[in-house]
Design a protein that fits this description.
Blueprint (H helix, E strand, L loop, with lengths): L1 H55 L2 E6 L5 E2 L2 H7 L8 H6 L3 H17 L3 E6 L6 E8 L10 E7 L1 H30 L4 E4 L5 E4 L1 H6 L5 H7 L13 H10 L3 E9 L2 E11 L5 E7 L1 H23 L3 E5 L5 E4 L1 H6 L4 H5 L4 H10 L9 H9 L9 E7 L3 E9 L5 E7 L1 H23 L3 E5 L5 E4 L1 H7 L3 H4 L5 H8 L10 H11 L5 E6 L5 E8 L5 E7 L1 H51 L7 H28 L9 E4 H18 L3 E6 L5 E4 L1 H17 L6 E8 L3 E8 L6 H5 L11 E2 L2 E2 L4 H11 L3 E7 L3 E9 L2
Parallel strand pairs: 22-24
Antiparallel strand pairs: 1-2, 1-5, 3-4, 4-5, 6-7, 6-10, 8-9, 9-10, 11-12, 11-15, 13-14, 14-15, 16-17, 16-20, 18-19, 19-20, 21-23, 24-25, 25-29, 26-27, 28-29
Helix pairs in contact: 17-18, 19-20, 21-22, 22-24
Catalytic activity: ATP + protein L-histidine = ADP + protein N-phospho-L-histidine
Enzyme class: transferase
Pfam families: HATPase_c (PF02518), HisKA (PF00512), PAS_7 (PF12860)
Length: 782
């Protein structure tokens, strides 16, 4: 029983387990069925969606198998115009234009055999539809070995846009090419930077400016046109332009073609994030701007130094500039002028300080002056007579910018000078007409400009003829008949031309037919004219002739006197020789022994005879004149001086005078007459001894140089007065300066001068009362 119960329980358990397994299997199968059902539904939905997408797709797929069969949809047949979907490759190609069919056939063959994808455009035969075809080898999943997968796109609607875009693209390409050529041909450097601000393109001018090989080298090496100045470098403005979207301009220095230039650099942002740039050489502009600025400053400085007042008004009629004389003339303070007052206010200020003409209707007068700003005339000029006697010359110049330039020139002094000039002209005319001389002023062209009554009356010209201002040749021809020698009339033209053309003063003389003598003179004047003067010298000619006749008479008398003195000197020698001979015989005892008194008397006679003989010789030497024969030989001056000193030494000893001799090594010798030169030195020594008292001193000095020898005799005697010194060398003047009854100044000095000059030398005497006398002779070596 127990076993039965146990078995029944086990069977029940087993049956229950089996039932449970079956239940679980059923549930699992139900779940799987439900899942498959859901998946099938999803697949069906997806298939429906794919069918819809394929129907709505702009492209139609076609599979071309290796055996020529085609798998495609009906839409392709509609596009090709056949209605049914083409099932054969040759049918599909037959629906296309011949050229397109051949191209598509070749492309499909290449895709089938070489797996080469393609893209081309074809047209349906007899239709306006355009199809875009892309293809490739059929994937393995299509199970079409040796086939090709082709997609057809209907591009009919886009073809017009494509053609339009192609035309626009061609136009844009042409414009781009033209712009590129323009940029390349531009003479100024131009460049393009990418968004990273690196150079991407430059033109030829840029390449030349940086002295690079070509544009590729510039881009590769990133050669910048502008050096890094330490303020962000050449990329600073480009970065600002890129980030701000605003163009940037800067003026920076750069080295272009080995020359330092100033460039105005423009950086312009572009829509692609890059920047374009170009540089303009403004070196000349900067220099011109600086020159204009310096010119304006120099002009204002110059205007301040002018004596005329200058005021410049702008287009808005406000004062833009005024110089210092303007403020001084119209008594306007600099601070008031610095506020740039208007034109009307300036005129009112002139009226307030009484620096404008007195007018009855000031508003109308002011309105008329306001019209100067639009005056059509290039220049307006007025004269203002101000209270107090001031004369102003006012010049108004309208400016191109609508402004006005006023110049105020103080003509008061000129007006006064003009008045004085008129007075001087009247005085000159009156003076001319009352001068003793005949005057005529000739212009540079030889025409007579001015003349006085003396000129007209002297020549006998008519006033009507002179009023035509004739030429000098016509005047000379008209006045020739008044001259004793009519040919001398040409002298007038010669003198005037010399003064006007050559600017030289010349003169001459002419004799009139009535016996009058005139002296002509032409003097160049500072203004280029010539002053012709005629001086009546008739009286002076008569006096001159009288003096000439008297001089000839005096010369004849002098010759007679000289001849008489010479003859008398020769005549005196005969008795003097006899007296000397008899005195020597008496002194020698030929007539018997003489007493002491007789011997003393004979010695006095001999001394007087000797002195008298010397005086006669001196007189003869003076009367011989310059024609005296001189011996020409070399004379040693040292020996000559010592011989003369030895000859005079006894006389110096007797008179108690110290005689000193100095001979310099440069004395040398001269060519001349030794006897006459010895006489010269002795005469000078005797003259000095004759002026001295006991205790005096006489110095004889001889020296010289290469060209001349010098003999100097000096003493410390009483000296000579200026009148005596001036007449010391005159013949027979004999001023009576005596010592012990003997003449101190006789014929010695005239003889010394005579012989010195005969040797080509010269003699000078320097003396002052109480200071002694110095006599110097210079003789040429040759």
């Amino acid at each position: 029983m127990t076993d039965t119960i146990t078995l029944s329980v086990g069977a029940a358990v087993g049956a229950g387990s089996m039932l449970a397994i079956l239940l679980f299997a059923g549930i699992a199968m139900l779940a799987l069925g439900l899942r498959d059902r859901a998946r099938a539904g999803a697949d069906q939905a997806m298939r429906l969606r794919r069918d819809v997408l394929l129907e709505r797709s702009p492209a139609v797929a076609a599979v071309v198998r290796g055996d020529g069969r085609v798998e495609t949809s009906r839409r392709l047949g509609d596009w090709l115009g056949g209605g049914d979907a083409p099932d054969r490759w040759d049918v599909l190609l037959a629906a296309l234009e011949d050229v397109d069919a051949a191209a598509l056939s070749d492309a499909v063959v290449a895709a089938q055999k070489a797996a080469r994808p393609f893209r081309l455009t074809v047209r349906a035969r007899g239709a306006a539809r355009v199809l875009l075809v892309t293809g490739e080898r059929a994937p393995d999943r299509l199970h079409a070995p040796g086939g090709a997968l082709i997609w057809f796109f209907d591009a009919s609607e886009l073809q017009g846009e494509v053609e339009r875009f192609a035309g626009e693209a061609a136009q844009l390409q042409g414009a781009f090419d033209a712009l590129t050529g323009l940029i390349e041909a531009a003479p100024l450097p131009m460049w393009y930077r990418g968004a990273d601000l690196r150079l991407a393109m430059v033109n030829s001018a840029y390449v030349r400016a940086v002295e690079a090989g070509d544009a590729a080298d510039v881009v590769a090496q990133q050669v910048e046109l502008v050096e890094d100045s330490g303020l962000g470098g050449p990329l600073a403005n480009a970065a600002i332009a890129r980030d701000s979207g605003e163009p940037q301009i800067s003026v920076v220095p750069a080295t272009v073609g080995a020359a330092r230039r100033m460039l105005r650099v423009h950086d312009i942002p572009l829509p692609d994030g890059g920047t374009a740039g170009f540089a303009i050489d403004v070196e000349e502009l900067e220099q011109a701007r600086g020159g204009l600025k310096r010119f304006a400053e120099a002009q204002r400085a110059m205007l301040d130094r002018l004596s005329a007042g200058v005021a410049q008004f702008g287009p808005d009629r406000t004062l833009r500039f005024s110089n210092q004389p303007f403020g001084r003339i119209f008594a306007m303070r600099p601070e008031w002028l610095a506020d740039r007052p208007e034109f009307d206010r300036v005129l009112e200020r002139m009226r307030e300080v009484k620096r404008m003409p007195e007018v009855r209707d000031f508003p109308t007068w002011k309105d008329e002056r306001r019209e100067w700003f639009q005056a059509p005339d290039a220049e307006i000029e007025e004269s203002w007579h101000l209270p107090g006697g001031t004369h102003l010359r006012v010049v108004a110049q309208p400016l191109p910018d609508g402004g006005l330039l006023l110049i105020f020139e103080d003509r008061t002094e000129q007006v006064q000078l003009a008045s004085a000039r008129d007075t001087l002209l009247r005085v000159r005319t009156a003076t001319f007409d009352n001068l003793f001389e005949a005057l005529g002023v000739f212009a540079a062209d030889g025409r007579l400009q001015l003349w006085n009554n003396k000129f007209r009356l002297t020549w006998g010209f008519e006033e009507k003829m002179l009023a035509t201002h004739p030429r000098v040749d016509a005047l000379a021809e008209a006045g020739a008949k008044r001259l004793a020698n009519p040919d001398r009339a040409s002298l007038i033209g010669q003198l005037v031309r010399s003064a006007t053309v050559e600017r030289k003063q010349r003169g001459g003389r002419a004799v009139f037919a009535d016996g009058r003598h005139f002296e002509f003179t032409a003097v160049p004047l500072p203004d280029g004219n010539a002053l012709f003067t005629m001086l009546d010298i008739t009286d002076s000619r008569r006096i001159e002739q009288a003096l000439r006749d008297r001089n000839e008479a005096l010369e004849a008398a002098d010759r007679v006197k000289t001849a008489f003195v010479a003859n008398m000197s020769y005549e005196l020698r005969t008795p003097l020789t006899s007296i000397k001979g008899f005195a020597e015989m008496l002194h020698g005892g030929y007539a018997g022994d003489l007493s002491d008194s007789g011997t003393e008397y004979t010695e006095a006679i001999l001394a007087s005879v000797t002195r008298l003989g010397g005086l006669i010789d001196d007189v003869l030497d003076l009367t011989e004149g310059d024609d005296a024969d001189l011996e020409r030989e070399r004379v040693d001056l040292e020996l000559l001086a010592r011989a003369a000193a030895d000859a005079i030494a006894p006389l110096a000893t007797d008179n108690g005078v110290e005689l000193a001799l100095e001979v310099d090594g440069t004395a040398g010798s001269v060519i001349g007459d030794q006897r006459r030169l010895g006489q010269v030195v002795e005469h000078l020594l005797r003259h000095s001894l004759g002026t001295l008292e006991g205790g005096g001193r006489v110095l004889l000095l001889v020296d010289g140089d290469e060209a001349h020898a010098r003999i100097v005799v000096s003493d410390d005697g009483p000296g000579l007065t200026p009148d005596e010194a001036a007449r010391a060398f005159e013949r027979f003047a004999q001023p009576e300066i005596a010592r012990d009854g003997e003449r101190a100044l006789g014929l010695g000095l005239p003889l010394a001068k005579h012989f010195a000059e005969a040797h080509g030398g010269k003699i000078d005497l320097v003396s002052e009362p109480g200071e002694g006398t110095i006599i110097t002779i210079e003789l040429p070596r040759a």
